[in-house]
Specification:
The chain has eight helices and 17 strands. By secondary structure, the chain is of the alpha+beta class.
């Protein structure tokens, strides 16, 4: 009974009106937001966000329960990690619209599928580009704002991973032969630092010798941006947004005929097995500091409660070490300036209960939670 009980929890966890561990909004400690533990349809979870930019550009969401608007529709767990660049507008927009679009298409198609996910990404992209068009004359710089988009969905025993950009999800899997938990990266990344991504861009733009440029020892698309896929970044997708009144520093010297960046996600469908222990979803701020196996080892070797916060703290320790400074000194650096030492970091850890995953008719617990809500200007973390 203890094992089955979480499946039937009937109500939303927390009302979202106050900050606290029992609230769906989590807790805030300076630049840190965290939710140490909670239950989703398929097990337990932990979340944490640390701000580095002047404005938090990472946005995230966890949904547990209905994945469509139909009473007879599928139930499951949804995780979204949206790592913005150029500002928070796109990642915030995705956080407000993408899951709603997913429920819409899941209802129309009466089930979850890769086609539903592709339509969800496309619709969210088109909605944001429409917003850019409406604000173009008064706020042209919104055309330069974009976001990576990582989505994970657990539904009917299957895990769907969709990614556009360089956020990452890593699976912790028990291997009998070595008696340890092995890290398996499930997401495909789209960053110009990866040779295969550069080759893909060059094949798509054979007549553009400047499609990828090595600038200050970093490969960038058109010498501007590292990611090759994103939501937003309208100025690199539609020529109409790469002209005045956009400031000249963002305008390309030559017009382009087809989109330079893409919003199409790479999608993986993975059947979950009992040996699949947990999933670590995180923006690239975590993976810049920790390897896949280092992160998996931390999750495996420490208590579940607060594990996302522990991963964030491990990343900050590593960031301080690389700059030959003490962690206690890094904690004193305020947002904005903090970005010179590490990026915004968002982490969601999903623990997988095989008994709950196998129950396709499971109807709870219901939960809707957005990461990072209420982060303030001062930090003691």
């Amino acid at each position: 009974m203890k094992m089955v009980k979480p499946c039937w929890k009937p109500s939303v966890e927390g009302d979202g009106r106050r900050s606290g561990e029992g609230s769906s909004r989590g807790r805030v400690n300076g630049l840190l937001w965290y939710k140490d533990s909670g239950h989703h349809v398929n097990g337990e979870f932990s979340m944490a966000v640390i701000q580095a930019n002047g404005l938090l550009e990472d946005h995230s969401r966890l949904e547990s329960g209905p994945l469509s608007s139909l009473d007879s529709g599928p139930q499951g767990t949804f995780v979204g990690i949206y790592d913005g660049h150029g500002g928070p507008e796109t990642s915030r927009f995705i956080n407000e619209h993408l899951f709603r679009n997913l429920k819409k298409f899941t209802s129309e198609h009466r089930g979850m599928s890769t086609n539903v996910i592709k339509k969800t990404f496309s619709a969210t992209e088109e909605e944001f580009l429409s917003l850019v068009k409406k604000q173009w004359l008064n706020k042209p710089q919104i055309a330069t704002v974009g976001s990576c988009c990582l989505v994970g969905i657990i539904c009917s025993g299957l895990l769907y991973i969709a990614n556009a950009g360089d956020s990452r999800v890593v699976l912790g899997r028990t291997e009998r032969t070595v008696r340890e938990v092995t890290a398996i990266q499930l997401s495909t990344e789209h960053n110009a630092s990866i040779e295969s991504v550069r080759k893909e861009l060059q094949s798509l733009h054979p007549n553009d010798r400047q499609i990828v440029v090595l600038k200050h020892r970093v490969w960038r698309v058109k010498g501007i941006i590292q990611v090759s896929r994103s939501i937003g970044d309208a100025y690199l997708k539609k020529a109409e947004f790469n002209r005045e009144p956009l400031p000249s520093r963002f305008r390309l010297p030559k017009p382009f005929r087809k989109p330079i960046l893409s919003s199409e996600p790479s999608i993986l469908v993975h059947k979950l097995y009992p040996k699949d222990q947990f999933l670590i979803f995180a923006s690239d701020g975590l993976w810049e500091q920790l390897s896949n196996q280092e992160a998996v080892d931390i999750v495996q070797n420490y208590p579940r409660s607060g594990i996302a916060k522990r991963l964030v703290k491990a990343a900050l320790h590593e960031a301080a070490k690389r700059r030959e400074m003490r962690y206690s000194d890094l904690k004193k650096i305020d947002r904005g300036v903090r970005r010179h030492f590490h990026d915004d970091i968002t982490v969601v850890v999903l623990f997988l209960d095989p008994n709950l995953i196998s129950r396709s008719s499971c109807r709870g617990p219901l939960l809707s939670i957005k990461g990072g809500v209420g982060i303030s200007a001062h930090s003691d973390f």
